[in-house]
Amino acid sequence: MMRMQPPRVRRLVQLYLGLVLFGVSSSMLLLAGLGVDPWDVFHQGLSRRLGLGVGTWAIIVGVAVLLLWIPLRQRPGFGTLSNVLVVGLVIDLMLDIVPPVHALPAQVVVMVGGVVLNGIATGAYIGAGLGPGPRDGLMTGLAARGHSIRIVRTSIELTVLCTGWLLGGTVGVGTVVYALGIGPIAHVTIPRLRIPLGDPVPAGSGEPALFSAGDTAT
CA-to-CA distance for 180 and 154, rounded, in angstroms? Predict the structure, then answer.
């Protein structure tokens, strides 16, 4: 019996490059101050209300969401665990060393650039095929129980958006631009950056299941 061996080094490089760029793009939206994506509205609201950095809250919430995978019987991949840590650390680092943007033209440029880069980063880390992010896995896990993925995603994002806004997170034009732009951008970048499986190798050859074809992100 044969199965496919993915190019692990390339997958790992693309995974971490994608996660770092995702953290950078998220911090760009935060620094622009014109509104961020729903989950970062939630993280920002928690940060403003309870202290700690936005990235730190992204890690804490990521771990909490990952625990919700247990009753859904979702299996995290290496990329899932990396996602929880890397993105939040990069966000906190960027917010510590880069000052906020204040001039409106610069804010718009940084905001649009953040949305575009976020879409590219999404394609990169999902295309690496080493496991979905914790929030994506929660969505697909609930959808696998027979619910519409559109309804599940909308319900989750509206919930975290409203909660984050009530906590003091920034909702603005950037939130709208992100909501409208991220889907079309990711629709292009995910298939273009998806790494195909490598040459077939015999099953049971000692390759870890962590890098098997089943560890793809959706």
Answer: 13
Stated pTM of the model: 0.83
User: What does the pLDDT look like over 14-54, one tens digit per residue?
Assistant: 999 999 999 999 999 999 999 999 999 999 999 999 999 99
Kindly report each contact of residues 214-217 with a partner whose C-beta sits within 8 Å and lies 24 or more positions away, as own/partner. Answer: 215/77, 215/78, 215/79, 215/129, 215/130, 215/131, 216/129, 217/77, 217/79, 217/125, 217/126, 217/129, 217/130, 217/131, 217/132, 217/133, 217/136
Q: Are 132 and 140 in contact (CB under 8 A)?
A: yes
State phi, psi for 69 to the nearest 5 degrees.
-70, -25
- Evaluate the CA torsion angle 170, 172, 175, 177 in order and state its sign: negative
CA–CA separation, 165 and 114 (whole Å)? 20
Q: Quick check: 6 and 151 in contact, CB under 8 A?
A: no
32 φ/ψ angles, rounded to the nearest 5 degrees = -70, -30
Matching residue, tokens 């790494």:
195
Q: What residues contact residue 64 under an 8 Å CB cut-off, 6+ apart? A: none
- Number of helical (H) and strand (E) elements in the chain, helices listed first: 9, 2
Q: Strand 200-202 and strand 2-4: pairing?
A: antiparallel
Whose tokens are 């015999």? That residue is 202
Cβ count within 10 A of residue 194: 16
